[in-house]
Amino acid sequence: MKIILSTERLLLKPIIKQDAAFILKLVNSPLYIQFIGDRKLKTVKEAEDFIKNGPQKSYNENGYGLYCVRAKEDHLPIGVCGLLKRDFLPHPDIGFAFLPEAMGRGYAYEIAAATLEYAHHALKLNTVLAFADPANERSVKLLEKTGMQFQKHFKHPDEGKEVVLYFKKFSD
């Protein structure tokens, strides 16, 4: 399976149908539902459809998407990270989420920082956005640690809740 990028401890690979059980577990974890939203996926089949119509569709249409974060030591999936192109934003945005047991180990920063470098150097993007629930202090701190800057508060058109928008402009 293609490796999108590799860090000291992590691999970023495309999400495939065989990752459906992992995706189901991730999107139904309490913090995912609280801060990202309920994707209403309850079966492996629904997770397979989500993979096909979400990440895999984005790879084909945009050349990027959400990818599976795997630990190098055992290749087990521990989270997702990648870039999304949303109709309501003028630039791609970085997104990430991890299983509860993988939190607090620096994985999110490690892969988010590498993903931003990938966005700039491999994808030649000039600007990457990010948004987060302002109550999600860990995500907000991570965005700031990667060099992203606060832009504004706005109401998420799909979720209907207020979020904070961040941006990173790259210069050579």
Please tag this protein with its features:
Aminopeptidase; 5-stranded antiparallel beta sheet; 6 helices; Alanine acetyltransferase
- Beta-strand residue fraction: 25-35%
What's the alpha carbon Rg, rounded to whole Å?
Answer: 15 Å
**Gap between N and C termini:** 31 Å
Q: Structural class of the helix and strand makeup?
A: alpha+beta
- In N-to-C order, the SSE pattern is EEHHHHEEEHEHEE
How many β strands by DSSP?
A: 8
* Continuous helix count: 6
Give the name of the CATH architecture. 3-Layer(aba) Sandwich
Write up what this structure looks like:
The chain is an alpha+beta fold. It has a single domain (5-169), classed as Gcn5-related N-acetyltransferase (GNAT) (Aminopeptidase), CATH 3.40.630. The chain contains six helices and eight strands, in the order ββααααβββαβαββ. It has helices at residues 20-27, 30-35, 44-53, 55-62, 107-121, 137-145, and strands at residues 5-6, 10-14, 66-71, 77-84, 93-98, 127-132, 149-155, 162-169. Strands 1-2-3-4-5 form a five-stranded antiparallel beta sheet. It has a three-stranded antiparallel beta sheet with strand order 6-8-7. Strand 1 (5-6) and strand 2 (10-14) form a beta hairpin. The longest helix is centred in the middle third of the chain and has 15 residues, at 107-121. The N and C termini lie far apart (31 Å). The model has no long low-confidence stretch (mean pLDDT 96).
